[in-house]
Specification:
With 107 residues, the protein is of the alpha+beta class. It has two domains: 3-65, Arc Repressor Mutant, subunit A; 74-106, no CATH class. It has six helices and five strands. Helix 5 links the parallel strand 4 (74-76) and strand 5. Helix 1 (3-14) packs across helix 2 and helix 2 crosses helix 4.
């Protein structure tokens, strides 16, 4: 991801799956001066992100981060719970929020 795409990704990541209008993404993800100079700066990056499968579109130019496909047995858990389960000797798939970031970076 380039710098603009990364700004958009982290902005939408905080909104937890809500659809957001493209112009609001440009206003919220960038700086005020950047938005005043080029109000449509985010539209090109949004288009690239949709093509690569990072974002999905909704009705009327709304965007959100495409949900990551879940593998069988994957669960998010706190580090404390993960250490307890590892100590028990059971096999499990542990996910952290950083795993999501690396997944979307690879697209």
């Amino acid at each position: 991801m380039d710098a603009d795409e990364r700004k958009i990704y982290y902005y939408l990541k905080n909104l937890r799956g809500q659809f957001v209008w493209g112009r609001d993404i440009g206003r919220g993800a960038g700086s005020r001066s950047e938005f005043r100079r080029r109000p449509d700066w985010a539209l090109l990056a949004l288009g690239r992100m949709v093509e690569r499968g990072i974002l999905e579109t909704g009705p009327a130019d709304h965007y959100r981060i495409k949900p990551r496909p879940k593998m069988a047995g994957e669960k998010y858990m706190s580090p404390q719970i993960a250490s307890i389960l590892k100590a028990s000797g059971k096999d499990f798939a542990e996910l952290t929020p950083k795993d999501d970031d690396t997944y979307y970076e690879s697209l």
